[in-house]
Specification:
The protein is an alpha/beta fold. It has 13 helices and 17 strands. α6 packs across α7 and α6 packs across α12. Bound molecules: zinc ion (2 copies). The site of one zinc ion (ZN) has 6 residues, from α6.
Length: 374
């Protein structure tokens, strides 16, 4: 849709500035804080003032590999306040607290009919932007939300739920989709390798199916957090042989399913070895194309399944919203570091180089708001 300019704005919350701060991706490992125009909106669109935006592993991957054209403004785990609405928008008013999905599938194409939504061409079209090629735009003060996202990909944040809690809807959805793909049964044991924020969410969702969950990480600090979320079966991978320990805990069989929530390919083989014959291994953090050596007989003779899951499922949108907004899991507690937008580069750097005490890192333009709340 053509940008109709500010004329199309029906209502606005306050004086909207003409320029704003944004973290602009300019090339491989090159992000700069810049002043850019506040995006204009057209009919059916909204302008949302970003309060909190989570930093996702996929943002970091795109920045580190330079896989996308420049310039772009990333950030897609966005919650904020509607600042202005375009003509024809009736579901939202300026002042509404909202959570935005950055893309939504068509639900009609071949891929959608076969429920592989992440492969849909409409889904690949990003409907939120802070300028340049639409790429999420959450690492900026304002985002323009395009019409089909206003209609199908924007959710009200209920009273009593913070912007911080709400920004976990997209990551929770991706984790739900991953856990669903394993079809866990209540008497099964699943090992989740990696207890960063995503590994922890995957673990909680796996436990919710009734399965027994074992977690492992190299950082004992992370396992302490896992335990505080009720995940009692932990393995400190810095001093314990995870495969051996998992076999001990499963009468020598190995886990029924293993979820790999750590990037890189070095753990694929150990993950397969920690799985029982006939079990399955879910690659959740292997987002970079490459090659890897696998034992074909582990797949053929031992009948182990190697599967993957990426991105969110529109079919799980309601359930993920319910899970987050009902505060079934206190996701806010996964946030270890909050940075104002002006320190966005530090935030990205920390997220790209996780420390033993760092979990979810968020950029929070809303921290500068007057009388701001979480
Ligand atoms: Zn994400
Ligand atoms: Zn489609």
């Amino acid at each position: 849709m053509a940008i109709a300019g500010q004329i199309a704005i029906e209502h606005r919350l306050q004086t909207i500035p003409t320029t704003m701060l944004a973290a602009v991706y300019r090339g491989k490992s090159d992000v700069r804080m810049e002043t850019v125009p506040v995006p204009e909106i057209g009919a059916g669109e909204m302008l949302v003032r970003v309060h909190t935006c989570g930093i996702c592993g996929t943002d970091l991957k795109k920045i580190a590999t330079g896989s996308h054209s420049t310039p772009r403004i990333f950030g897609h785990e966005t919650s904020g306040v509607v600042a202005a609405i375009g003509k024809g928008v009736s579901r939202f008013q300026p002042g509404d607290r909202v959570l935005i999905f950055h893309h939504i599938p068509c639900r009609q194409c071949y891929y959608c009919r076969h429920k592989t939504f992440a492969q849909c061409d409409t889904y690949k079209k990003v409907g939120c932007t802070a300028g340049f090629e639409p790429s999420g735009g959450g690492f900026a003060e304002y985002v323009r939300v395009m019409d089909w996202i206003v209609e199908k990909g924007t959710v009200h944040i209920p009273e009593g739920v913070s912007f911080e809690q709400a920004c976990f809807v997209e990551p929770v959805n991706t984790c739900m989709k991953g856990v669903d793909s394993l079809r866990l049964e209540p008497d099964e044991t699943v090992l989740v390798i990696g207890q960063g924020p995503i590994g922890l969410i995957l673990s909680i969702l796996a436990k919710r199916t009734g399965a027994r969950v074992i977690t492992s990480d190299l950082y004992s600090q992370r396992l302490t957090i896992s335990k505080s979320f009720g995940l009692g079966l932990t393995i400190d991978a810095s001093c314990t042989d995870v495969i051996e320990r998992v076999r001990e805990m499963t009468e020598g069989r190995g886990a029924d399913a293993v979820i790999l929530a750590v990037g890189g390919n070095g753990l694929i083989r150990p993950a397969m070895e920690a799985t029982r014959p006939g079990g399955r291994v879910l690659l959740f953090a292997q987002t970079v194309h490459g090659e890897v050596v696998v034992d074909p007989a582990a797949i053929c003779v031992d009948e182990k399944t190697l599967l993957g899951s990426y991105s969110a499922s529109v079919e799980l949108q309601e359930e993920s919203v319910r899970f987050v907004m009902s505060r079934e899991m206190d996701l806010e507690r996964l946030i270890s570091h909050r940075f104002p937008l002006s320190r966005g580069l530090e935030a990205l750097d920390l997220a790209a180089h996780p420390q033993p005490d760092s979990m979810k890192v968020v950029i929070q333009p809303g921290s500068a708001w007057e009388g701001h709340s979480k």
